[in-house]
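User: quick one, fold this
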Amino acid sequence: MPISKISRNAVVSLLPLIMLPLNASAGVLIKHPDFSVVADAYINLTTGNAAENTDRIAADADIRLLGLHETEEGNKYGGRITFESTSAGSNNQDPEVGEVSLLAQSDWGRIEVGERQGLPDVLTGFAPNNYTFTFAEYGPSTGRNLNPAGGLQSSFINQTEATAINQLSSLGFVASLAGNRSAKLIYAAPRSASGINTGISYAPDISDDNPGFKQLIQSGLTYDYYWDEHQLHLGGSYTYAQAENLISSQQRDDLSSANLGISATFNSKLAIGISTTYNGTSGQLSNSIQENTQGWVTSLNYNSGPWTYGGFYQQAYGQGDTQQAGRNRLEAYQIGASYRFNIRTRLYTAYYHYDLRNDNQSSSDGDVVLLGVRIIL
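Assistant:
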């Protein structure tokens, strides 16, 4: 597979994100009796080949800084900020502030106010989101990734089909609008001794990135059970988005989206998961021909020494032509593998196949082969 060169603009835009000293990353930058600053940083470089599309490099980089002041009583107050850069072919973005928030944390949990994506459950590190149950462990855990709605596969597909995939690929994997980034008020409860974890967030206005919707409420609840060297993880999340008051031709119904899932990990090696999303006809144009929106995903991952293997299968159904009966359908599967050179460097590859159809008989399909490297700085 030919590998495209990263453009000069992409390289320049990524330099501020990758030129951190090794001893200043993935750990404490400043430690003081009254405060600390912790940094995490990564870069992902991926190349892919899709039919009728030019090979290119997709690059993602991120620096995350967390500053905390801790009182004698153990309460913590501080802030979090991320700097991000994304590059794909000739489409390059200069480093910019991604998320920024203020927070307070104590025995009663954590309150956060600021620009945040989704329903977050961690402040540092790159662990998978607690409210997901199917995953591609062999790929990047942050940035564009190889999860069903990770967006990395569609980066190498022509724009028309990529848009259709992105509209459906979250169904089954998460609740709709799980990836929404906006000004939020977030509460994350402490994990209970019995293994229950929960959180809720409220965004007063998401209309800039999600036309037709105004207020957003996201909530999640999970339960973890451990025995011997095994783990059971189950639960779900729920999204409610209030529709804006618009002219009749643009008016939508309120969105109600529920995701439920379960995963099991055996001996820290074999992980199996399944999850489903159901929206019904909610969130669609009020004067359109409405169709049920739903999906499901199942995944399997296996770790053996430095190697990780896995794959997923997905079916998702969404509204088709708003004035003609029929649903759009995405059927996709992926297999992949990765090799960890050390705790900071992972080489990954995957094969992704998609089949797009609607009930009015139009269809398209394609394959993407991806190869990349993830470096935690």
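User: anything notable?
Assistant: Confidence is low (pLDDT under 50) at residues 1-26.
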